[in-house]
Amino acid sequence: MKLHGYFRSSAAFRVRIALNLKGLKPEQAFIHLRKGEQSAPAFLKLNPQGLVPALEDGPHVLTQSLAIMEYLDETHPSPPFLPKTPAERARVRALALVVACEIHPLNNLRVLNYLKNTLKASTEQHDAWYRHWIKEGFVALESMLKAGGTGKFSHGDTPTLADICLVPQVFNAMRFNTEAELRPAYPTIFKVFDACMKHPAFDAARPEKQPDNE
């Protein structure tokens, strides 16, 4: 098994957490996104989208973080990333998708680069764009988490797919907003975040602990 990633990529961060939760330790290959290594012919042959992460598992090349995590959950069922009942599974998937489909894509590096380099957005406009979509998503996520009942994590007392997606997005939010600003605004998000970061699988996956951290 070989993981192609970048220390600051949210999607790669998710997969690192997932691998840690499953107790898997793949070989790592580092793709420096800011240097454009994702556009190298050899990597595009692996993943035509030119995105990280990509996971090689024997003859299989897997892309898109949620698809990779679903694959890991099916091939290594313990501990599970989804609860047992259909309604609970739907809730966890919805929480994960708020991040993976609604917040993260709008603030992805290639979108931000397009804003700056092609549309010539100023630094102030770039940062306002980022903060706007964080706020839109976090307001909804905070409400959804509050409505979910009790438990340390997003859904109950064990980590799920929702937590795996939440944590990297909080790290991203703290790059453009101070933690002191975010915590009072989103107490439930940070309650879950704090519980996650006490778990070794999440802590070991954090960007600053990766070999390619700068």
Detailed description of the structure:
This protein is α+β, with helices and mostly antiparallel strands. It folds into 2 domains: 2-79, Glutaredoxin (3-Layer(aba) Sandwich); 86-201, Glutathione S-transferase Yfyf (Class Pi), Chain A, domain 2, CATH 1.20.1050. The protein is 56% helix and 7% strand. The chain is built from 10 helices and 4 strands, in the order E-H-E-H-E-E-H-H-H-H-H-H-H-H. The protein has helices spanning 10-21, 41-46, 65-75, 86-103, 109-118, 123-146, 161-176, 179-185, 187-197, 200-203; strands at 2-5, 27-30, 54-57, 60-63. It has a 4-stranded mixed sheet with strand order 2-1-3-4, covered by helices on one side. The longest helix has 24 residues, at 123-146. The two termini are 25 Å apart. The model has no long low-confidence stretch (mean pLDDT 96).
Q: What is the strand and helix layout of this fold?
A:
Blueprint: E1 2-5, H1 10-21, E2 27-30, H2 41-46, E3 54-57, E4 60-63, H3 65-75, H4 86-103, H5 109-118, H6 123-146, H7 161-176, H8 179-185, H9 187-197, H10 200-203
Parallel strand pairs: 1-2
Antiparallel strand pairs: 1-3, 3-4
Helix pairs in contact: 1-3, 1-7, 4-6, 4-7, 7-9
